[in-house]
Amino acid sequence: MNIDTLRNDFPLLQKTGDERLVYFDNAATALKPSHVIEAMNAYYLDYPANPGRGEYDLVYRADQAVQAARGKVAQFIHADVHEIVFTSGTTMGINLVADAFVRKHLKKGDEILITESEHAANVLPWYVLQERYGIVVKIIALDAQQRLTPALLKEAITPQSRFLAFSDVSNVLGTKSDTLTLTKIAHDHGLWVLLDAAQSAPHFPIDVHQSDVDFLVFSGHKLCGPTGIGVLYAKRTHLEAMDPYFMGGGMSLKYAKDFSIRLAPIPERFEAGTQPVAEIIGLGAAIDYLQHIGWDFIHQQEKILRQRALVGLKKIPFVKVYNPDAEAGIITFNLEGVFPQDAATHYNAHHIAIRSGQHCARNLTDYLQTDGTLRWSCYFYNTEEEVDLFLEATKKGQDFLDAFFR
Ligand SMILES: Cc1ncc(COP(=O)(O)O)c(C=O)c1O
Q: Can you give the pTM of this predicted structure?
C-alpha cells in the first residue's frame, strides 16, 4: 500500500497552500474517500428510489443496494444480516437498546454498570433510566493504568447487577479494553453486555461471535463513511425480545382498524420510515474501502504515527501527555498553562485540526485532574511529515504562550 497513492483517494488531502489541512481529529470523524462519495452520488443520480416501496426497476436496485450494504456490515463484524439494524449512529443505537431492551428487562433497584471514561452517548441514556425508573447506574472507577480490569469489574458486580455497557476503545484515553475477558465475567454473573465500538470499529477487527457481546454499536462517519448512519448489532433473540422504538411505514406486515399490528421480521421492524438510503450505501462503500486498505496497513501506519508524535511531544518540556500507554492512535495532552481551546486555535492558525475540551466524556475530569485536554488522533492516511508539522506547531505553543502573557 503506497501512502501517496492512497491519499489521492481523499479530495480534502489534495488541497494545497493556505487551504492545506493537516487533519488530526480522526476520533471525531474520519475523512471521506472519493469511493464513498461516488457511491452515494450514484444513488442520487441513477436510482434515487425508496427501497421496498414500489414495483419498478429503480426500487429493486435501491433495495438491492441496501441489502448489499447490510451484508457488508454483517460480514465486517461477523454477524448475521438479520442482526444488523441501521441507526443514525452510535448515540441512537445506545438509546434504542436503553429504551427498547433495558427499560423492559430491568426493574427498580437493578444495576447498570458503566465506567468513568464513557462517552456521553454511553452515559446519559442510562442516567435517564435511573431518573425515571429507579434503575441504578454504577460508575466503575478505572485503575491507575486507565483501564477497567477484570478485578475491578468483579468487585463492582453485585446480585443486583444486570447490565454492563462499556467502550471497546476510550475516545479520550485511547485504551483498548480486554473485551473478551470482561464480557465473559459479565456473562458468568448473568449480566447482558453492550459494547460501544464507536472508536474501535474504524481501527480494529470486530467479531461479535468471538466476543459474544449482546449488543454492539458504531457510527459510519468514524470509519470513512457518511454521517447520519450507524449500526446496532444485537443477538437475534434480543432483537426478537425488543419492542420497536419508532413506529411507521416499513416496520409492520399488517395492521387494521381493530388496532392490531403484525410486526415485520427483524431487523426491518426497527427501521420505520424512509431510511437514509444514500448513507447506507455510503457505509457499505466505506467498509469495502477499509477492507481494501487492510487492517495490517491501518495498524502499522497508526503505530508509526503515534510513536513519532509521542516521542516528539515528550521532548517538549511544557507538554503534558495523559495517556502514554494507549493502544489506539489517540494522544491526549495539554500545553501547560494554556487553555486547550486557546491551544487548538493556535494549531488552527497552522492549518492543523485537533480537538480540545472534554470530548463528551465529562466523568473523566476528576480522574485526569483537568477540566479539558487537547486530543490528537490519527488515521491510516496521515503521514510522518504531518506529524512533524504538528510537532513544529506544538513547539511554537511556547511562543504563543509568551505572546499571550506579554
Ligand atoms: C466512544 C464513543 N461513543 C459514542 C460516540 C457517539 O458517536 P455518534 O456521535 O456518532 O453517535 C462517540 C463519538 O465521538 C465516541 O467516541
A: 0.97
